[in-house]
């Protein structure tokens, strides 16, 4: 709320949101985030100090918060599980501040060169690798590699080809850099506002909430948060990825969508602290491979429950709606649904399904077919007898009246 009258007029108030650590963010900008009940998302209040003009802030109007934030209409409208394509390794390149990223940050010189090298050598790189840009500022050019949990500092444009050859193709330490290992849990939040407003509105709020809750738990030296560029699925904002060890110590990268500030404590206390997945927000994970055939449309939750890749709303609606039409349609994920206009065929299909549900196969199913036709014959014969009887009665009445 505005704590004092402003000496100037404006139409929609502007929030200036930046990623600053912990309480420094609130004291510098005047923006405070208040936890809301589970039924409602967190809301934002701001003071006149948040109106300070700075190129390092991302301006978001109150109208945009309502339209693109946690109360937007599309929230929770799609299934999340299976919306991440399988991959094996994730590279994060530190590059500038996220408020300075262009819409296509991958077209900046260093990200572009690294991305091009990954594409040109993809057949030589044994592990399917993703590249995402994260905020860098004082550490531009640093590369973090998951699940190996290794880091190289100061990658430059001229180093890219040698780095890809040594580290990604041959699986050896980079000859031009020093390999470092790191530990802890890492949370990457999409805050790429110049690419999509939903991420631009939701991301910075989640980053601030994460840092606040991490500080309250005394985890600043164990859990680290960074803004990241587009990771796919703007409509699922807030989007984030958590890299942390599972119960066996294996580093896993889990993707979450539709995350709100209210979900942050649960992510810290359940996912990071206990290794338990928040299934209602879970999109997928790093390490789901295609072994044994093409399974890009399928993934498994950590508890073993199989899920299928999210389908378009129109397709799922069409599958749920039973229409009496002819022909066949090819569905998603290789699923074929055929519908026929003939009521006899539909009836026969129902009989078959009933037979199958009772565990009958072979002769039993054939018996059902004969039974259905015998019933039809009996009904037809009855109709014929009734017609003959009617004609006989009518003829008899005609003779008597004549």
From TrEMBL:
A Pfam family that the UniProt record links to this protein: Suc_Fer-like
Gene: LOC111292423
This protein's UniProt keywords: Membrane, Transmembrane, Transmembrane helix
Stretches that traverse the bilayer: 378-398
Native species: Durio zibethinus
Annotated segments matching region Disordered: 287-321
Entry keyword Nuclease: no
Bias-annotated ranges (Basic and acidic residues): 292-321
PANTHER family according to UniProt: ACTIN PATCHES DISTAL PROTEIN 1 (PTHR31902), SUCRASE_FERREDOXIN-LIKE FAMILY PROTEIN (PTHR31902:SF10)
UniProt lineage: Eukaryota, Viridiplantae, Streptophyta, Embryophyta, Tracheophyta
Name of the protein this chain belongs to: Uncharacterized protein LOC111292423
UniProt cross-references to SUPFAM superfamilies, sorted A to Z: Thioredoxin-like
């Amino acid at each position: 709320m505005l704590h004092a009258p402003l000496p100037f007029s404006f139409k929609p108030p502007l929030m200036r949101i930046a990623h600053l650590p912990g309480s420094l963010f609130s004291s510098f900008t005047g923006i405070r985030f208040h936890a809301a009940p589970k039924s409602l998302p967190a809301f934002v209040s701001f003071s006149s100090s948040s109106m300070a003009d700075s190129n390092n802030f991302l301006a978001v109007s109150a109208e945009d918060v309502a339209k693109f934030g946690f109360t937007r209409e599309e929230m929770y409208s799609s299934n999340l599980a299976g919306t991440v394509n399988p991959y094996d390794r994730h590279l994060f390149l530190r590059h500038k501040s996220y408020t300075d990223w262009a819409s296509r940050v991958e077209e900046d010189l260093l990200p572009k060169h690294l991305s091009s090298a990954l594409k040109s050598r993809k057949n030589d790189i044994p592990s399917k690798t993703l590249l995402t840009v994260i905020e860098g500022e004082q550490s531009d050019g640093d590369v973090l590699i998951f699940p190996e949990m290794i880091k190289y500092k100061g990658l430059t444009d001229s180093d890219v080809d040698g780095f890809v050859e040594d580290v990604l193709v041959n699986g050896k330490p980079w000859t031009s850099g020093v390999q470092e290992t790191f530990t802890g849990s890492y949370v990457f939040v999409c805050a790429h506002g110049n690419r999509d407003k939903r991420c631009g509105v939701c991301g910075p709020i989640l980053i601030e909430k994460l840092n606040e809750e991490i500080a309250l738990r005394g985890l600043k030296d164990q859990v680290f948060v960074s803004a990241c560029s587009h990771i796919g699925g703007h409509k699922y904002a807030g989007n984030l990825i958590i890299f942390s060890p599972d119960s066996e110590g294996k580093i896993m990268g889990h993707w979450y969508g539709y995350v709100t500030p209210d979900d942050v404590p649960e992510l810290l206390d359940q996912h990071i602290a206990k290794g338990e997945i928040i299934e209602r927000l879970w999109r997928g994970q790093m390490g789901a491979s295609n072994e044994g055939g093409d399974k890009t449309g399928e993934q498994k939750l950590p508890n073993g429950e199989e899920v299928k890749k999210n389908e378009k709303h129109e397709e799922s609606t069409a599958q749920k709606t039973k229409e009496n039409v002819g022909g066949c349609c090819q569905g998603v994920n290789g699923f074929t649904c055929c519908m026929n206009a003939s009521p006899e065929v539909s009836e026969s299909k129902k009989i078959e399904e009933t037979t199958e549900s009772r565990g009958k196969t072979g002769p039993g199913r054939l018996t059902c077919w004969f039974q259905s036709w015998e019933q039809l014959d009996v009904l037809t014969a009855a109709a014929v007898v009734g017609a003959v009887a009617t004609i006989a009665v009518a003829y008899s009445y005609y003779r008597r009246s004549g």
